[in-house]
Amino acid sequence: DKISNHETIRVFNHGNSRRDFTFVGDIVQGVVNSLFVNTGQPELVNLGNGRPVLLADFVRLVESQVGTDAIIDSVGMQKGDVPVTYADITKARRLLAYNPTTPIEEGIVRFVSWFREYNATQFRMNG
Question: What is the mean pLDDT of residues 76-94?
């Protein structure tokens, strides 16, 4: 939304952080799969992609899909942040037959399309 509206985005760690971006449809599949599993006890299971992506690459993918360059305020790492985070989905694969299949490139295309179709800007939170 900010990129397409030519607003400044703050990019922490100068875009060098790696994060586990996961398409919402893959997460939904994991949640649905969990409804059919009963181990007899509560389980904690990570859902995600398991493959961290460089934040700078993520921004470039979004720029490509919205058709405009981001106005970037490149800043250092936030206090208490870590350079790399991603989900260990080993347990989800085993218990839930969870298998995220949407590559980030496809996920960004689908998300931007959805965002535009539903005029999601109207739900933007201020701040």
Answer: 96
